[in-house]
Specification:
The structure is a single chain. The chain has 314 residues and is mainly alpha-helical. It contains 11 helices and 3 strands, in the order αααβαββααααααα. A hairpin with a 6-residue loop joins β2 and β3. The radius of gyration is 33 Å and the shape is rod-shaped.
Amino acid sequence: MVVFIACGAAAVAAERQNLSDWWRLRGYTAPAIVAQLATQTTMDAYARKIFYVNHPEVESKDNFYKSCPNNGGEKTVVLGCYHGDQQGIYVLTVKDSRLNGVEQVTAAHEMLHAAYDRLSARDKTYVDGLLMDYYKHDLHDQRLLNTIAAYKKSEPNAVVNEMHSVFGTEVAHLPRPLEDYYKRYFTNRQEVAAYAAQYEAAFTNREQQVSQDDATLAGLRTQINTDEAELQTQKQAISDDQSQLNSFKQSGDYSAYNAGVPAFNSKVDAYNALADETRGLIAQYNQLVAKRNAIALEENQLVDDISSPPAPIK
C-alpha cells in the first residue's frame, strides 16, 4: 500500500510537471541562437525541453548583469544563471573568438541546474552519491578542485548541485555510472567538455606562457645584476691601473709603464666584452618584457570580456 501511494504521488508530480511544461512551451519558438546552442551541445529531446521551458536568453553584458545580479552566484568562468523553479536561463554573449565555447558550456551548465531541480528525491540521492564519490576519489584537476572549494565557501548549500553542472560540462571522462546518467541529457557529452577545454586553453596557455616568461626574466635579471656588479669591479681595477700607468709615465719610468700596458689593455678588452654581453642581455630582457606584457594584456582582455561591470560609485 505504501508503495502504491508513493508511486501515485510520483505520477501526480510528473503529470503536474508535464502540464507546467506544456503551458510554458505553448506558442514558444526558440530563437535561432538558443536552438543553435542546444544543437551544438548535443542536448537530446528531454534536455532541449528543459532548456526551452526556461525561455533561454543570450544577452549582452549590460542586460545580462541585470538578469543575473552577482553573476547569478556563479564562481567559475561559465557565465550564465538559472532562476529556480524553471523561471529562466540567461547566457552572456561572448563575442571574442578566442573564447569560443563559453556560450555553449554556459547553456549546458545552466540546463543541468534546471534538470537537477527536476530530479525525484530518490534520483537526487543516487546522483548526489555518484557526484560525491567522483569528487572524493577521482577528481584530480586542480582547477576544478579550486572551483568546488570556492562553491563550498560561497554556496555551501548548493555544492552538489554545482558539481552536477560542472562535472557534466567540464570533465571529459567520468566513471561509467555518471556517464550513463548524463546520457539522459546529451547524445555526446564529450563535445560539451571539448568546448570547455577549448576556451579554458585560452586562459591556461597564456597563464603558462606568462609564468615561463617570468621565470626567464628572473634568470636574466639575476645575470644582468651579476654582470653589472662585475663591470663595476673591473672598472675600478682599470681605473686603478690607469692611475698607476699615468704615475709611471709622469715619473719617466717608461720601462714600468710599457710593462704594464699589455695587462691594462687586456683588462679593458675584457671589460668591453662583458659590457657588450650585458647590453645584449638587457636588450633580450626588454624584448621579453614587451612580449610577456602583451600576453598578459591579452589575458586581461579575455577576463574583461567575461567579467562583471565595475560597481557603481556610491
